[in-house]
Amino acid sequence: MTGLVQGVRRASVARTVAELAAMLGSEGGTLTLGAVDERTGTVDLSFNLDDADCGDNCALPPDQLRQVVEARLRSALPGLTVVRIDDSRQPVPAGDGGVAPAGPALSSITVLDPTGGVVPGDADPGPDLGSLRGRRIGVRVDVLWQAWDQTVDEWIAELERAGAVVTTWRRAQGLKGAEGERKQAEYDAFVGGVDAVVSGLANCGSCTSWSVRDGLNALNRGLPTVVAVTEHFVGLARTLAADNGRPGLRLVELPSSLNTLPEEQVRAHARSSFPALLDAIGAVVR
Prior knowledge:
Elements: H1 10-24, E1 30-37, E2 42-48, H2 62-76, E3 82-87, E4 92-93, E5 99-100, E6 105-110, E7 130-131, E8 136-142, H3 146-161, E9 165-171, H4 177-192, E10 196-202, H5 205-219, E11 225-230, H6 234-243, E12 250-254, H7 263-281, E13 283-284
Parallel strand pairs: 2-3, 7-13, 8-9, 8-10, 10-11, 11-12
Antiparallel strand pairs: 1-2, 3-6, 4-5
Helix pairs in contact: 1-2, 3-7, 5-6
């Protein structure tokens, strides 16, 4: 193990935490800087959903939140040694060995080797799709964003005009246990039956996490893959892809205002953005 270079400056920590908070998005919870021990390199943060517009459904899951925070802080702050995150969603262990249902808990990340850097991962974006004619395109939709359904409707019409065969699959994110396993097996079968995948919509913390996760499932199978993401969450999508070893994951960017626009404007934008989708996935019409 290399020697630790201890110590951080509060101003540097504050800048990095502000960047993280902006990337995560205010509608998906608030990340706040607390105490900083500049000498030992210990940082305390808190995360809460008090001001979130859509509750826990829009926030990064606790484990992924910690991973994203750790990766960004490690990269920016070489003197970091310990990060503690007070996450309002974490249950508090009860005295009898059970788990209390409410209240914050402090989770710690101990950075053993902050000088080691971050492994860059595989920057390969995956193969280009090439000609659309006769290709099977799988579009992963969700249960959250009506504007994404409208966008996909328009893209499907264009894809089919170009000779592609399109199927869709709908993700209900966050399912656990037997139901979560069943839905994941269903998605795996869906990906196994197509030649390329378009995954979306990354338009909040949690749905960005799931859209990227499902996109990486396809990319790691060697399929041409693109994730649709609104402009505010591009940084988070890239961070999640990099943290999972595939920083080259292709993205197609949509406006953050998409879900607030009238349907006719959403559909018009979908038609005008279709060339960007083709470019992102390396597809051609011929």
